[in-house]
Amino acid sequence: MKKFFALALIAILALTATAFAATYRYDDDDIVFTYDENLFDVTMDDHTDDEDLVILSTKDEKNFVRIHLADLDDGETFPTLADFKDVEEGLGVKVETLETWANGYKNVFTYTVDNGDGTTETTFIAPVYDDDGEIDDILTVRIGVEKDVDEEAGMARDDAISEIVNTLKVDD
Questions:
Q1: Which end of the chain has the lower number of beta carbons within 10 A, N or C?
Q2: CATH number of the structural domain spanning residue 158
Q3: pLDDT value at position 124?
């Protein structure tokens, strides 16, 4: 009998955990990710001819994940580290490169800005390659977080953001 109750409890917990996670598919699956519906709302999703934009905000709207996918137009190239000199000077931050980032995105630029109001924004800019190995799109993920939060709440938020980032797929 104890075994039955233990199995029933496991099944209930599994169903509950699944109910709170939603898979978001945007514009014929160009942008796909999983997010916790208890913590985040999709506050904006917009599409133009050459851009996709999805913004997720926490229920208190103080933390967010902004996912922006833009096509490179003919003749445009992916920015180089030298192109980010204006960003460094204008924001007073150091732009760094990462060899790999979530889901194997390679040659990613990243920088973090302290907004001076108790929040920070970290931006990741990654090239998205087509089937021929050419850079076709630019993926920008900006994560805004409130710094002064309870440690447990901060860890839960960070785990939820990691889930979004780690499940993010772009198939253009």
A1: N
A2: 3.40.1000
A3: 94
Query: Hunting for tokens 């099944």 — which residue is that?
Result: 11
Inside any domain, residue 17: no
Does residue 120 sit within a domain?
yes
> Under 8 Å CB-to-CB from 21, ≥6 apart: which residues?
34, 35, 36, 37, 163
d(CA 49, CA 108) in angstroms, rounded, equals: 25
Backbone CA torsion sign across 92, 97, 98, 101: positive
Residue 156 backbone phi and psi in degrees, to 5: -65, -45
Count CB atoms within 10 A of the CB of residue 122: 14
**110 in any annotated domain:** yes
Cα angle 10, 13, 19 (rounded to 5 degrees) comes to 140
Give the separation between CA 55 and CA 88, rounded to whole angstroms.
25
